[in-house]
Amino acid sequence: MSLARNLPLTKSVLASKIDAATPGQLGFLADLFQAENESRERSRRERLTRQAAFPQPKDLDGYDWSMASFPADWGRQQLTSLEFVHAAEDLVLYGDVGCGKTHLAIAIGRLACTQGIPTRFFTASSLVMRLRNASAEQRLDKELAAIGKAELIIIDELGYLPIDIEGARLLFQIIADSYEKRSRVFTSNLEFSRWADVFGDGDMAAAVIDRIIHHGRIVRFHGESYRNTHSLMK
Q1: Which residue of 27, 48, 56, 176 has the lowest C-beta tally within 10 Å?
Q2: What angle is formed at CA 76 by the lines to CA 72 and CA 82, rounded to 5 degrees?
């Protein structure tokens, strides 16, 4: 254990030892390296999941797809394959409150983490507050760079709370900076025609929508709120 403390191994040294190894020693090394690789991959997935900062551990197992309507040429298989993330395409989960938009967004993000894709999860209001604090402390560029390391950015509850013009500009900067570079997933209960109410500026909202729909798709949600259906308060 002491000798292993300062590894990783030097390839030239390893190659020379492999050339002189017996079949039994080679088998031991193969098992050791496989276990090490699996351990590192498991640790990376766990680290990515922690860094993503999901509010709850939601997954696709048992997810109720009945309230989600997909585009005619795109569906669950394309969604769960995460091909849209690899292509830096966008996704808008839009529709009624309580129909599983946030659950699906979290599940997509957690699936991405298990595949080694750096992901960040924010509510729109918490992201604006984070950027506002960074700007006030003269570290906005550093914060934007940290968020920009993600290949998938999830912005939840867009439109649930009003955003002032300064916050809207900061949010626009995140969206504009990530355009065609990384995938974005938005959840909202507002149709695009009402996004001007969120950003407080019709031109800014139009610029945001333009950057989303270019490489984006909408999954629509309709139905009675899951929380209302299963509520203890009747």
Answers
A1: 56
A2: 115
Which residue reads 């995938």 in tokens? 183
Residues with Cβ within 8 Å of residue 49, at least 6 apart in sequence: 110, 113, 114
Phi, psi of 220 (to 5 degrees): -95, 140
The arrangement of strands across the sheet holding 119-123 comes to 68-69, 216-221, 90-95, 183-188, 152-158, 119-123
**68 forms bridges with which residues in the sheet?**
221
Give CA–CA dist 197/203, Å, rounded.
Answer: 11
Residue 218: alpha-carbon gap to chain centroid: 17
Task: Output the pLDDT for position 42.
Answer: 94
190, 162 in Cβ contact below 8 A?
A: no
Would you tell me the crossing angle of helices 23-52 and 101-114 to the nearest 10 degrees? Answer: 150
**How many other C-beta atoms lie within 10 A of the C-beta of residue 228?**
11
Q: What are phi and psi of 120, to 5 degrees?
A: -130, 140
Reading the block at residue 201, the tokens are 């500026």
Helical H runs in 53-90?
76-81, 83-86
Q: For residue 13, what are its two tokens?
A: 């040294």
Cα 93 from Cα 95, distance rounded (Å): 7
Phi, psi of 19 (to 5 degrees): -60, -30
CB hemisphere CA count around 206 (13 angstroms)? 3
94 has which bridge partners? 188, 220
Answer whether 144's CB lies under 8 Å from 173's CB.
Answer: yes
Residue from 137, 57, 63 nearest 100 by CA: 63
Share of the chain residues as helix, strand and coil, in percent rounded to the nearest 5: 50, 15, 35
